[in-house]
Design a protein that fits this description.
This protein is mainly alpha-helical. It contains nine helices and two strands, in the order ααααβαααβαα.
Length: 191
Amino acid sequence: MQGRRGTLYHISSQAALKHQASVSELKAIKRFSSTNFATSAAGILKIVVIVVFLIAAAVFLAASTDCSSPVWWFFPLIAFVIIIVMCIMYALFMLGYAEDNINLWVKLDLGLLTLAIIFTIVISILTFTMCNGKDTASYVPGPLGLIGALLLAVNAAAMYVMWRYREEEPPVATDPATVEQRQPARKSVYV
């Protein structure tokens, strides 16, 4: 892991060493560069998810909820864990660690997003059913958690599309006459 490169058009050193890297893989590396990730749909969605879960946890803790469940603290715990994980993953993508090994970091992010979606849906439904309060603010965290789960799913889809999107590549010519036209013969040193 080498971290941030500091240039817009830097091709990862690991991908440059691989001779079999296709054009689409190099374009994927460029999509995950730190400058492109911040303005991509996946990067913006990570920030939106962080804000939604911050608001949901703050409203849950500030509202006077009457939870009949002994596990009432699960909602803010899950929300803060998701906030921390999303901040760490966003920072890792912004620092350029994804450029070195895109497959590892995107698979890790997709796995963490899947776990976060499952935990968020379960804990939001539990908060919906078990926690009720006297004011309307106590009913806000459950739906905000479900909205956060939906945003997590959209973020996972955006990451996957950003990772696996392949443009149509022109077919490689296998005809010997075409290959010779593309690569002129080398001149001999012993003339």
